[in-house]
Amino acid sequence: MQGRIVKIISNDCTVLSDDKLYICKPRGKFRKDNLVPLVGDIVEFDEKNNYILEIKKRKNCLVRPPVSNIDQVVIITSVKDPDFSSNLLDKLLVVIEYNNIKPIICFTKLDLISKEMDNIIDYYKKIGYDVYLNTEVDKIKKIFKDKLTVFTGQSGAGKSTLLNKLDENLNLKTDEISYALGRGKHTTRHVELLDLYGGLVADTPGFSAIDLKELSDIQIKDAFIEFENNCKYRDCMHINEDGCEVLKRLNNDILPSRYENYVKFLRRK
Ligand code: ZN
User: What span, in angstroms and rounded, lies between the C-alpha atoms of 119 and 114?
Assistant: First the structure.
């Protein structure tokens, strides 16, 4: 049978298949092959003997938190208090794009919105991202069906508030702090996938470590999805090349903060 691992405690993998849960052990040969089952894995399993027979190829896989086959990451982004950080948002977008995951941006604390912020929100929509405001709870409820979702965003950005609005029974451990404490010596932090509107959501904040050092310049460039549509030169890095359309369109079609972050990220700052 085929199913998905939704929880792992020591060697017991809980596999969800057709709305039923099976507790299975990984086969010994996985260890030989250096294969460690991860929450999110799609597996072939023997439901009579409770063994995982095969781990299907992962479409992506994070180390922290350890979750695989993530469909989408919801980036909770505060417009004020804490102040909007274009640097953090763009950095998360780069890492999420690089990991082959669909980013979804959700802006919070909108009672404090300014005209400038309005333009920024419109820009992220215009370049092709799914953007929601945290007041659009009914719309947000529809994004989870048949998807594995991870939430991320800076602490204090209103993650808990949004999640409570979505489902007050959902007990996600969303704080970076609780994540860090959970990894202390007395407790082992387990990631678990929970039901949310016909999909699954990881009960852990995404991307506790963001490091651009492992990315090449090209990978960073490719993660700025609007550059390719603006500049027709495929090899252009959009730094000082003659005829670069990205440079020409800065301030008009390209948001200056996006470009500034791009240059910073290339310097790995
Ligand atoms: Zn260019």
Answer: 9
Residues with CB under 5 Å of ion ligand 1 are: 231, 236, 238, 244, 246
For residues 238 and 231, what is the distance between their CA atoms, to the nearest angstrom?
Answer: 8
pTM: 0.89
Distance CA 253, CA 250 (A): 6
pLDDT, tens only, 53-93: 999 999 999 887 889 999 999 999 999 888 899 999 999 99
DSSP conformation letters of 32-75: HTT----BT-EEEEETTTTEEEEEPPPS-B-SSS-BBS--EEEE
* Cβ-Cβ contacts under 8 Å for 13 (sequence gap 6 or more): 5, 7, 23, 24, 25, 26, 37, 43, 52
Is residue 58 within 8 Å of residue 36, measured between CB atoms? no
CA of 254 to the centre of ligand 1 (A): 12
**pLDDT tens-digit map of 26-48:** 988 888 888 999 999 999 999 99
How much distance in Å is there from the Cα of 188 to the middle of ligand 1? 47
Is residue 88 within 8 A of residue 96, CB to CB? The reply is no
